[in-house]
Write a structure and sequence with these properties.
alpha+beta; Deoxyribonuclease I, Chain A; seven-stranded mixed beta sheet; six-stranded mixed beta sheet; 8 helices; 15 strands; 29% strand; globular; DNase_I; nuclease
């Protein structure tokens, strides 16, 4: 899909210098092989420690051994992070998990569920990987409770799947009575996957109560294409905490001074097919911090 994917997106939801930082990372086929590579895990660990909540996509880990190895690596010396993870999701033998790591001193998980998108064996389900919706709570943020809806779409069905996220938001509202929602992940909404009039088929786009914080002319890759595959979309209620115009691209390869040769050296082969590195797309969101009241 993308040859190099090291760029990420930065969105600020803050009015004070300190805040809660959310992120999303698409690690290509993260499983036992990649979690056994010390150099790779050092880089991932450095990235994870930037965030208070981080979504990791494309987790291929049936027995959670790679996840546990990641947690041991992230928490070595000073346990800070906990995790919540979905079941393996997918229509075939190929399945992925959505994995959230979160800094337990600043945020907690209130509840979660996997969205029911229809009968998978019947072939009437909507998503290749249905959303794993998590409500988080933080005493540090003005929005105390907020729901995160992750989505890694199938490129060939991006229009249908992104449109159906509209129904997921409605379901979250019905279940939890909240409109404080952030949708984020690898939507594949760019270039040839979603074009021209197809945008009018996406309710999440046509309904102006949603704010797409990453514009269609953004580039979230470092390949020769200029494609905004990765997105952050927020509801109007959640938008009240956003600093307008604050979205920007974050290049973690440049920030961590990683060379392309190092990135290439970290590729792995499986069944004679090259897995295109560990690097992923970054989405970063800051939540406005509460001021401490005088006692």
């Amino acid at each position: 899909m993308r040859v190099l994917c090291s760029l990420g997106l930065f969105v600020v939801l803050l009015r004070l210098s300190a805040s809660l930082l959310l992120g999303a990372f698409n690690i290509k086929s993260f499983g036992d092989k990649k979690s056994s590579n010390t150099t790779l895990m050092d880089i991932i660990g450095t990235i994870v420690h930037r965030y208070d909540i981080i979504l990791i996509q494309e987790v291929r880990d049936n027995d959670l051994s790679a996840t546990k190895r990641l947690m041991d690596h992230v928490n070595k010396g000073s346990p800070q992070f906990k995790y919540v993870v979905s079941e393996p999701l997918g229509r075939s033998t190929y399945k992925e998990r959505y994995l959230f790591l979160y800094r337990e001193e600043r945020v907690s998980v209130v509840k979660h569920y996997t969205y029911d998108d229809g009968c998978e064996p019947c072939g009437t389900d909507t998503f290749s990987r249905e959303p794993f919706v998590v409500m988080f709570s933080s005493r540090y943020t003005a929005v105390e409770n907020f729901a995160l809806i992750p989505q890694h779409t199938s490129p060939d069905h991006a229009v249908v799947e992104v449109d159906a996220l509209y129904d997921v938001v409605a379901d979250v509202h019905d279940r939890w009575n909240t409109n404080d929602v952030v949708l984020l992940g690898d939507f594949n909404t760019g270039c040839t996957y979603v074009t021209g009039s197809e945008w009018e088929q996406i309710r999440l786009f046509t309904d102006k109560s949603f704010r797409w914080l990453i514009p269609n002319d953004a580039d979230t890759t470092v390949s020769h294409t200029d494609c905004p595959y990765d997105r952050i979309v927020v509801t109007a209620d959640m938008m009240k905490g956003v600093v307008h115009g604050s979205a920007e691209v974050y290049d973690f390869m440049a920030d961590l001074n990683l060379s392309h040769s190092l990135v290439k050296s970290l590729r792995f082969s499986a069944q004679n097919k090259t897995l295109k590195g560990y690097y992923g797309h970054f989405l970063k969101v800051r939540l406005e911090q509460l001021t401490t009241p005088s006692l």
